């Protein structure tokens, strides 16, 4: 297990009380709506995007109605207040993940964060960034290692980087239950490995990665680590500094924040050595007609006007999660994961993709229904008001590895209730009978 | 009948269970491979043309594929529908079916629906924007295969449907039936 999960073994984490959960749900206006002819919404698609609490919506509204101005320029009061709100949000996000504010770069989403890192490697390889950036220089013979469980966002940018630099892409495989083959690190990650990019938790199987083992091996060979933290930050206590990764990306919209904003964490000395990618205004020091010097991080990576209101909203989301307490959030969701797994495994002809032990996984439960395509599963659930994700969840190689073309996924968040899982379980039990499949006593 | 029951009519469920034309056979004039990138559904479809017919005539289609009941049933119904049909008429059928998918579940005029026969069972699909692409997968493959065979001229046309030819007697909706892609 990861370092962040270890404390629970000794000290049980606080649970959200029923009253607290009721109060949490009241914070999310959308959860009160009905769908498909008046059915209460059962939103089990938080792995794709989470719903937003009032404090996030209010923070954006407040920014636009009270503080809107260009940040990091202008001497007027509004500019000062806008800049303060923007930087305070950076601090809130940094504190949620245990790092310094200057180590957080705002980006439109996690995909943009991973691409930024990949293109920084390209730029360094083309000679930009000088001696300081030599860690980012790639050549034929160098290797980039990912895992077979990656979301396309943490796979395709590395394929492209290999194509641009001549480096070779290798990967850590997965077990039949979706857990990473951590035991292969010693053979797959070698002195040739320059980057080890991996997910903290699979968006398909929910399996949580043994980050410590990955970081240990990367350090042995001097490779940089890039963590896809999209599925972990909203659901677990995550201390990126303690985990020891070099870079990590996560999105705002999956952690109760707005769309259009995400964060890239980079260890200070790593960001300082990284050449810029997008260039232009706001990221410079001195510009002449011939040449330019660049601002220190994080501004070096924030060219052009930024998504300030969204960043402020993401800051509010981070504060909201910290006030709930990530231990309590994780504890609640671990219990929901257990209920979801129980619901899915109880239905005849339904199979879980991923580990069954809630200590090894998050509450994103993907499954296949024998004889019924995932789209059809999703449609029947939708008719009961239950929103799940269907398809390959942007992880085609993992689905191929697990021998399925597509799956359905029920994924929870802090606001998910036991009753919602019950509605889901009942709807799921009706799927095979609806399509005339009645074996196993399901009819 | 609920929206969902209209979506999954018995005819669709039956075709999904026992599809017509499934299993690739040789002697085809052309083959097309189409995928739905949203969910990975795919079809490989071969068009077999009748010998010496002018205008060109579809003898039959054979196909292999995997996907949801809507996509599989739609390919099956289409395979029945276009058997022995002259290529220009098959193109009209395709246009009419695409019009049905744009009709938001309201259906088409009687004449157009008569032409579509069993394929009108898919009327309810048009209420679910995310499912329209499922129903169109096979029709896109047929059109592409016919174009590749040279039996159908599609000026500047790739394999995805974009209505260019006239659609006689069909009440065509104004909104394009744009399938939704999902991410993340």
UniProtKB/TrEMBL annotation, chain A:
Cofactor: pyridoxal 5'-phosphate
Pfam families per the UniProt record, alphabetical: Aminotran_5
Keyword Transmembrane helix assigned: no
Keyword field contains Transferase: yes
Organism of provenance: Actinotalea soli
GO BP annotations, alphabetical order: cysteine metabolic process
EC number: 2.8.1.7
Protein name per its UniProtKB record: Cysteine desulfurase
Domain Aminotransferase class V intervals: 42-424
Lineage: Bacteria, Bacillati, Actinomycetota, Actinomycetes, Micrococcales
UniProt-recorded Gene Ontology molecular function terms: cysteine desulfurase activity; pyridoxal phosphate binding
Enzyme class: transferase
Functional note: Catalyzes the removal of elemental sulfur and selenium atoms from L-cysteine, L-cystine, L-selenocysteine, and L-selenocystine to produce L-alanine.
Catalytic reaction(s) noted: (sulfur carrier)-H + L-cysteine = (sulfur carrier)-SH + L-alanine
CDD domains membership: SufS_like
Family: Belongs to the class-V pyridoxal-phosphate-dependent aminotransferase family. Csd subfamily.
UniProt keyword list: Pyridoxal phosphate, Transferase
From TrEMBL, chain B:
Stretches for region Disordered: 152-184
A GO biological process held by the record: iron-sulfur cluster assembly
Protein name: SUF system NifU family Fe-S cluster assembly protein
Domain NIF system FeS cluster assembly NifU N-terminal: 8-134
Superkingdom in the source lineage: Bacteria
MF-aspect GO terms: iron ion binding; iron-sulfur cluster binding
CDD domains given in the database record: IscU_like
């Amino acid at each position: 297990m990861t370092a962040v999960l270890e404390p629970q073994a000794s000290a049980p984490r606080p649970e959200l009380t029923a009253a607290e959960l009721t109060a949490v749900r009241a914070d999310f206006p959308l959860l009160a709506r009905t769908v498909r002819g008046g059915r209460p919404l059962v939103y089990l698609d938080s792995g794709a995007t989470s719903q937003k609490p009032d404090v996030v919506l209010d923070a954006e509204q407040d920014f636009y109605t009270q503080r809107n101005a260009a940040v990091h320029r202008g001497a007027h009061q509004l500019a000062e207040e806008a800049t303060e709100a923007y930087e305070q949000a950076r601090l809130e996000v940094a504190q949620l993940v245990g790092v310094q504010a200057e180590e957080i770069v705002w980006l439109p989403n996690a995909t943009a964060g991973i691409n930024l890192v990949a293109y920084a490697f390209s730029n360094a390889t083309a000679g930009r960034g000088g001696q300081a950036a030599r860690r980012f220089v790639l050549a034929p013979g160098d290797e980039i290692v990912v895992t077979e469980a990656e979301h396309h966002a943490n796979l395709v940018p590395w394929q492209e980087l290999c194509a641009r630099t001549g480096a070779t892409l290798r990967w850590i495989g997965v077990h039949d239950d979706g857990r990473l083959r951590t035991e292969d690190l010693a053979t797959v990650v070698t002195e040739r490995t320059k980057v080890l990019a991996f997910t903290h938790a699979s968006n398909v199987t929910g399996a949580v990665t043994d980050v410590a083992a990955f970081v240990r091996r990367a350090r042995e060979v001097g490779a940089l680590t890039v963590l896809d933290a999209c599925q972990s930050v909203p659901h677990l206590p995550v201390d990126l500094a303690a985990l020891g990764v070099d870079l990590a990306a996560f999105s705002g919209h999956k952690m109760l924040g707005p769309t259009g904003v995400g964060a890239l964490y980079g260890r200070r000395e790593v960001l300082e050595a990284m050449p810029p990618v997008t260039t232009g205004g706001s990221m410079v020091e001195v510009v002449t007609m011939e040449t330019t010097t660049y601002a220190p991080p994080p501004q070096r990576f924030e060219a052009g006007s930024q998504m300030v209101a969204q960043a402020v909203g993401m800051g509010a989301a981070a504060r909201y999660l910290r006030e709930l307490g990530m231990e309590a959030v994780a504890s609640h969701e671990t219990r929901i994961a257990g209920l979801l797994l129980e619901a899915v495994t109880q239905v005849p002809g339904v199979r879980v993709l991923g580990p069954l032990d809630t200590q090894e996984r998050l509450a994103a439960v993907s499954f296949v229904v024998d004889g019924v395509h995932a789209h059809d599963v999703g449609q029947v659930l939708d008719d009961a008001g239950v929103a799940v994700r269907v398809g390959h969840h942007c992880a085609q190689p993992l689905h191929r590895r697990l021998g399925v073309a597509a799956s359905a996924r029920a994924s929870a968040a802090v606001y998910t209730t036991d009753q919602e899982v019950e509605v889901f379980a009942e709807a799921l039990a009706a799927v095979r009978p609806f399509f005339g499949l009645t074996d196993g006593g399901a009819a | 009948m609920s929206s969902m029951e209209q979506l999954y009519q018995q005819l669709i469920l039956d075709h999904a269970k026992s599809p017509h034309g499934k299993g690739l056979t040789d002697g085809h004039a052309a083959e097309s491979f189409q995928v739905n990138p949203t969910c990975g559904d795919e079809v490989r479809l071969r068009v077999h043309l009748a010998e010496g017919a002018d205008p060109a005539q579809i003898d039959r289609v054979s196909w292999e594929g995997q996907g949801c009941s809507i996509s599989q049933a739609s390919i099956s119904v289409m395979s029945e529908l276009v058997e022995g049909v002259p290529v220009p008429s098959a193109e009209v059928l395709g246009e009419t079916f695409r019009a049905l998918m744009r009709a938001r579940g309201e259906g088409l005029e009687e004449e157009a629906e008569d032409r579509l026969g069993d394929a009108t069972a898919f009327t309810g699909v048009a209420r679910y924007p995310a499912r329209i692409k499922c129903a169109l997968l096979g029709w896109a493959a047929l059109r592409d295969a016919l174009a590749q065979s040279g039996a159908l001229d599609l000026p500047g046309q790739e394999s995805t449907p974009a209505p260019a030819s006239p659609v006689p007697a069909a009440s065509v909706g104004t909104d394009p039936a744009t399938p939704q892609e999902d991410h993340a």
